[in-house]
Amino acid sequence: MEKVGYRDILLEYINEQEPEQPILTEQIAKYVIQQTGQKEIDVKKAVNVNMARLEKAGHVVRVSKGIYCRKIPTAFGYYIPNREVLFCKRLLYEANRVIGYETGLSAMNRLGLVSQMPKRRYIATNLYRKKVPADILIEIRKPPAVVNETNYRYLQLLDAISDIDEAPVDTTRPAEVIKNTARELGLNTEMLILMARRHYNQKTLLRTIDIMLEGQYETARR
Fold first, then answer.
1. Residue 169 dihedral angles phi and psi, to the nearest 5°
2. pLDDT band at 16 (very low <50, low <70, confident <90, very high)
3. pTM metric for this prediction
4. What's the sign of the alpha-carbon dihedral 31, 37, 40, 41?
5. For residues 200 and 101, what is the distance between their CA atoms, to the nearest angstrom?
């Protein structure tokens, strides 16, 4: 560290990140520890201090506590990625691993079940305890199970099935939309039903069986 200095190591890490990639102080600290072999407690303090200095110097922009992004110079000034997009990515991915998925009305809109697009995006994530800044229109939900690469699509579709009675569904054939989505995503019917049994209530389980095995769906609300 005496020869290089924290600032140079941090800038090296920062400049390797994509413009739309959230830069997390916890990940930077791990990188610095790998590069220097210094103690974690010392590195974390130094990273926090130096990231604040780099923000003041115009190298990065603070998105929220512990989250930054690159400030990219262009011919027309500086390009700063959307804070909400960056915060959302933080909830969806961790070191390129899936840890969350979109759910609620915003997901149902994308699936074609509702035409209404809510102002807020709803994210089910393993980081469900994380605080959302007041100016970011994202609502965090606790997922039914720990989210990973293999199950997030199943959980997303099952959430839609579970929420269908409370949502303003305006497609005439919601069961067909769900079944087609499962087919397009390559989801296994048996696995979908098994996950409904493990992580959802009986009503969602029976509805999943009805949609996937019989193709029948009672639109009348009971």
1. -65, 125
2. confident
3. 0.73
4. negative
5. 17
